[in-house]
Amino acid sequence: MLNLSTNLKNAVIDGKVCRYARLDLTNGTTVALTSHDSALIVGGVVYQPVPDLEPTSMLQSNDGTIDNQRVFSSWFGNYVNITSLFGGDYDSAGIEVGWIAWDINPLERIVLFSGVVGDITWTDQGMSMEAISELKKLEKNIARTYTANDPYSFGDPEWGLAEGPYTFTGTVNTVLTPRYKFTMTGDAASQPDQYFSYGKITWTTGLNAGRESEVRIHLSSNNSLELYVPTGYNISNGDQFTALAGYDGSFDQAKTKFNNAVNFGGFPHIKPPKTE
Questions:
Q1: Cα-to-chain-centroid distance, residue 266
Q2: Which of 216, 221, 230, 235 is most buried, by the most CB atoms less than 10 A from its CB?
Q3: For position 54, what pLDDT does the model report?
Q4: CATH for 164-263, among 3.40.630, 2.40.128, 2.30.110, 2.40.10?
Q5: Where in the chain is the domain with CATH 2.40.10?
Q6: Where does residue 268 fall: left (phi above 0), alpha (psi -120 to 50 degrees), or beta otherwise?
């Protein structure tokens, strides 16, 4: 149940409200739209007028997803920056939908739905943007899954190792495949073969600064790194990064590579499931 102030209640009763939709990207950019016939400023954010910001019904399912994904696509579709999209700025971006009381001072908004962006896909009908409710964040696994490989790694308290001793700096020397594969110099280049495979790099300079990339293959023969997914922006010679050692989850790596067998959380001797 909404807890509205007297001013907001009167604005709703008198019909002095307009619709708004807001998208907060992870790079700090905000896309704010309103059905009002002129721009509105609420809380320092400018909501641009969009005549076709039509009302729609949204049904929230038990798992926190919204059934009418197309509504967000039609509202924000013309404002999606493709470069920014592939750069990861829309990953888990915040979404708000509600009303703005435009006849009170200061202007106030009534939040009817808030959540995050899920999957964004393109079909023959255009873009589809999934919206996930904040309630989805309450989901968590209670029971533990038993597997042969270790479910823990850097960042998990159960793993017990800090990232610092296994993190090295590097600089892009030559781009072999745009946004995907390159050779490197620096401390990272002195590590043994496959040391960073299944690890990650964090870009500290260049167009991708602040973003992370997962490493698929590290070859010491030519000091190259190949990523699982191309970066959102082009990689350039001289771009700097930090590289974290990779861990494939096996008991052998936990023991020999990290000397951390005592914290291995897998069950390497578990019997595989029977298949008929």
A1: 27
A2: 235
A3: 60
A4: 2.40.10
A5: 164-263
A6: alpha
